[in-house]
Amino acid sequence: MATIKVNLYISCTDDDKVQLQKLLKWLYPMNDEVNVWFRNPPSRLPSLPLPWRILLFWYRPP
Asked: Structure pTM?
């Protein structure tokens, strides 16, 4: 079975540094399963190439 990596974006301010560090420390053991962003969100996914868009016309990446 293929592993799935979860993308997690944390929206926070500079006042939340203590809570952010606690959360990152808590998530550290799961770093193989979780991608964490807290400053810059991940870039938008590229759209599918034309042949895939024809086959999967209903799919739109988030």
From this structure: 0.54
